[in-house]
Amino acid sequence: MKNREIEILKDAVETDFLPFVRRPSRYIGGEVNQIKKDLNNRDLTFALCFPDIYEIGMSHTGLAIIYDVINSLEWASAERVFSLWPDAEEVLREKGISLFTLESKAAVCDFDVLAFSITNELCYTNILKILDLAGIALRAKDRTKNEPLIIGGAGMSNCCEPIAEFFDIFILGQGEETVVKVAEHLRDSKIRGLSKQQVLIDAAKKFDFVYVPSLYKFQYDGSKIKSFRPGNDSLPVRFENAFVEDLDSSPVPLAPIVPFAEAVHERISIEVMRGCPGRCRFCQASYCRRPVRFKTPDRVFEIAKAVYHSTGFDTISLLSLSTADYPYLEETLEKLGKYFESLRVGISLPSLRVDAQLRLLPKLTSNVRKGGLTIAVEAASEKLRKIINKPITNENLFAAVEAAYKEGFGKVKLYFMVGFPSETEEDIEAIADLCFDLAKLRKRLGQGPAQINAAVSWLVPKPHTPFAWLGQKSVEYFENAKKIILSRKKQIRANAVQFKFHDIGQSVMESAIGRGDRRLADVIEYAYRSGAKFDLWSEHFDFELWENAFHNFGLDINTLAQRSFDADEILPWQHLGGPKKDYLLSHYNDAMKL
């Protein structure tokens, strides 16, 4: 690793860029609680890259934590980079300005490390766009020894082979502690003047949560993987997810940045629990974020109070994969309510799992925002819920929603998924019936029907889940399911129910790429160079463009999405953390018996 002078582009940005973009607040920096250091007087510099726009990235809790952790190191600095919206990208290219960070307006290409938070398969082309705008070679093998290290983290690291060609390192699991260990390793290597290759080899040997793709090779036999081997026998062949043992003492930004542009979530976000006691067979997070750990009510209150006084946010959001399973929920809500109710600070609860505890929840949350209750039901029939291992009964569901109505909730948002094994047309039709029954339930209180907003997504078999061996249902299946739901809604005159359907093409993309191997790098790069970007945004997503990209390399996107895997097959992700294969297969076999 080389010492490099970091170029500050402040004058060019302020003169030739900001006056010509439609929303300069996305790129101006200088917000309340921003951390800015003298980059050229630090041993190690990080450009933290979020491959979506400012408003999305500034709502990402993980990015805020890593930003705070790195900047707490006296010898290191971290600055932020977000994906440019098309108008800003056009200006940057036209003016010949290199991609820059928000804090110092520093050239991204001059940092020691570019660290990406990778949260979804549909952000991969934005990763390439950030590298391209920074003037950095897209493929790791094409970069010079003087270019930054490219590191990937967050959820997609556990199934990263499709983008492995673009990265030097992936960090598996939770980053609060691991980023410090990796930073210390890089700092020491830089001081010692080690080559980039030696830095990578040493990291691969030293940390079981670090995966260096260039040190490993695959052999293929048609669509299947024949072998996965390291370059030499001293390297590991299985990697593990890092995890924070004591969530209560884990670092949390007590003075997070207050965005200039309105972010998707402007609130005091507190993670009360990590991991999930449930084992929904379609959910990658529930299998990859183990074990379950909790913050104490005192710690939650301490964080809420500090963040409120440093930001002025008027909503507290208690985050986890299943907040209804947080064992100290009642005590925490009471503690927060006593302090914040008079300050008119409300409490927001994310999607909740229905069980006996949720029946009591409305009574415990007098200061919870009453706009709506959100529940992830997933399937309308109890039979399907057993198959997916989602232990919700209709009895508890109706009891919970009725209790919410009594406490003043007038809207309910429900999440459903279509495409589960053993699913019938009757199961799909039942989605409309269940929603309408829940809307009418409010009439028991002498009021009009509740407003039910139902979001329907399409099952994407995710790596590291029991359903990963399944092929995804066809596009025609999902289109027919949509017709069945809307037809049933019309038939029963469920005017109080509104349905919103996820883009089928995007779900097909997630399945085709998410379970793919390293050979998909060619497809992803071709799609990017053909104009793909912001694939998570419906106004930019172009399914035909992606179909053509796959076709260019002799592949069919639908065939890959619908592909099932054999039980004894080497999976493209099985070396990348997560539960052991035999455990997941036992869950898969149990589901298939139901």
Q: Biggest sheet: strands side by side, in what order?
A: 2-1-3-4-5-6
Distance between the termini: 55 Å
Which class best fits the helix and strand makeup? alpha/beta
Number of domains: 2
Are there runs of 5+ residues with pLDDT below 50, and where?
none
Our estimate of the beta-strand percent is 5-15%
How many E strands? 17
3D shape: globular
CATH architecture of the largest domain: Alpha-Beta Horseshoe
CATH-defined fold name of the largest domain: pyruvate-formate lyase- activating enzyme
Under CATH at level 1, the class of the largest domain stands as Alpha Beta
Major sheet summary line: 6 strands, mixed
**Helix tally?**
20
Q: Over the alpha carbons, how many angstroms does the gyration radius reach?
A: 24 Å
**CATH homologous superfamily (4th level) name of the largest domain:** tm_1862 like domain
